[in-house]
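Let's sit down with a protein and look at its sequence and fold side by side. Please make up or recall a protein chain and show it to me in full. Label the sequence line and the structure token line clearly, so we can match residues to local backbone shapes. Go ahead whenever you are ready, and we will take it from there.
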Amino acid sequence: MEKICTDNENRTGGHEVENNTSKNKALGTSSIAYGQPVLIMGSGSVVGQMENEGPLSGSFDKVSDDKNDMFGEDSWEKAESALQKEAVALTLSKTCAQTADIRFLYAGDLLGQNIASSFGLVDYNIPLFGLYGACSTCGESLALGSMSVAAGYADRVISLTSSHFASAQKEFRYPLEYGGQRPLYASWTVTGSAAFLLQNVSAPGKSVSGQTVKNEYEGKYQYKVGITGVTAGKIEDFGIKDSFNMGCAMAPAAAWTIATNFKDFGRKAQDYDAIFTGDLGSVGQQALFSLLSDQHIDISDRHYDCGLIIYDTEKQDVHAGGSGCGCSAVVLSAHILPKLAKGEWKRVLFVPTGALLNKTSFNEGQNVPGIAHGIVIEALKNE
């Protein structure tokens, strides 16, 4: 990887971040409502060729230029690191921010010990929190990143995640050369990464270089976008042991988080224009509806699954849909945020979902528990 020039020699304690913690509220058992929105200043998305052949074609910032999605590297793992490196570079470029403007990185992936993140981001020389929540990691990174900004510990942070079809198959399934068969309820890991620059509304408008830090959506669209609250997920284990059936393994966690968000915030389904899950797929979506129906909750008229959005399941052989850390991340960047900025939606609940397993737990016959984190994202008036 080429060396990245950073401005970390100019990194200082900076100005004192305005602390609005008294305005933040802990709600119910698992949620936080922010006193002021945490702005999403911009995002960058990078995907493989197959992802750009689906319904969101042309929406991504960068697409692989080779059919094997190697991104100029000589291994799948290095390719995934390159995804993260490029996603951050795109985000910084689109917002005119410098590396020294970013207080923390919150990043994760699906590979052992988060090597896609650690190797992909090392050259940025920005303090890093490495996260693992399986395919829910996008939600985890946005939750923790926005919490640190809302609490006044940072002016700006970047939250990001990635996944790569081939590296995930190597990590969790079988080598591609083996030609293993997948059942129809299995999903297809998305090759993609997206990064999001989160900013305190009271942050100074200039970067360390003196350049104005831009909001990608301001001026271009009718609205800005921001995170106004989060609901932390908890582990749900319904005894699923089939690692191919991740949609059903994750559905209970998604149902719990959605129901808890409604209870904690005093809301109902109609208070959201859209509710997104990460990668339940067609099978997991039906399980989610059934579990919520038991609690007299119906979201079927406003529910979307990122795994069913990114691919054309009729024309692309992905079986139950897309999955992976990158799935919800790139759909959020390329699809959800622009629709909020255009005013097509005013408030959405974004719930990335994860199946908490690894090779050891699966081979030892343990269950596949799930987790899901809820992020409330709203359209904000440009002032």
